[in-house]
Amino acid sequence: MKKGKQKNNATTRAGRKEELTAYLCLIPAFLGVTLISYLPTLAVFVLSLFDWNGITKPEFIGLANFQRIFTKDIYFWDSIKATVWYAFLAVIGAVVYSLIIAILLNMNIKGRTLFRSLFFIPYLLPAIGVFKGWEWLYEGNFGLFNFVLRMMGLPKQRFLDDPNQVIPCLVLIAIWTSGNLIVIFLAGLQNVPGVYIEAAKIDGANAWQRFWNITIPSITPIIFYNVLTALITHLQVINPALALTNGGPGKRSMFMSYVIYMYGFQKNKMGYAAAYAVIFFILVGIFTVILFNTQKEQLFGEEE
Length: 304
Known about the structure:
Helix content is 74%, strand content 1%. By secondary structure, it is mainly α. The protein has two domains: 2-47; 69-300, MetI-like (MetI-like fold, Orthogonal Bundle), CATH 1.10.3720. It has a two-stranded antiparallel sheet with strand order 1-2. Strand 1 and strand 2 (59-60) form a beta hairpin. Helix 3 packs across helix 8 (179-190), helix 3 runs antiparallel to helix 11 and helix 11 packs antiparallel against helix 14 (270-300). It starts with a helix and ends with a helix. Residues 300-304 have low confidence and may be disordered.
């Protein structure tokens, strides 16, 4: 009995020592996340209650910033429409495009490694270089796309200057730079059990039946992850407005992130920009919660 107790005590002491070591190793990461993420986020919530230009002393005004945003701001509703519409098209387009490319790259074809690199490179390129390159493609007079249209006898288009075309044109850039989603889909496809595929072939299932009944269910968590990351990324879109459109034409690309940047760093209304950021934070949270709730059963097998 004494030996058993001594052994249990030694095991307990070893477990406590291991637990203490784990906590000590987690402290730097916890401090980093707190200082970089949690405290700045809390500061934004607090700052949204003040009128502050970044220089003078902040003045507490309560919910006045939020009241003005919902009742008097000329950009608010247009920015929500532009952001949601862009994110909706970009998420669907990027996920579908990435899945198709990943399926093709997962096939046993020559030069597969080269093609994988080519499709991933756009994601690695500097954003300003990407947008300046696409700006030349979309240019209204001498751009490549209009050159091709003229060669085909079609009228030229004002891609980025047309209110009806600007969002689809920016979405196309987002789809082209979705190489990270391709890599994640490719990893998921390579983990689909080959036994199920072979069994389906023996049972006479065609390619579409194998894809829909075996591949898709096997990579459902991967699809959810890519949809979630793409949704959060594209809701926070700002680079296209900064590099190409400046929110135009007609406020059609006046994204919420761009409005926050404009009020905070161009008009020096830090408190007002913080209130915008709080609303934006809540909007992103709502979409994330909706996505989790709609996919809960498929991901975790949970039922009501």
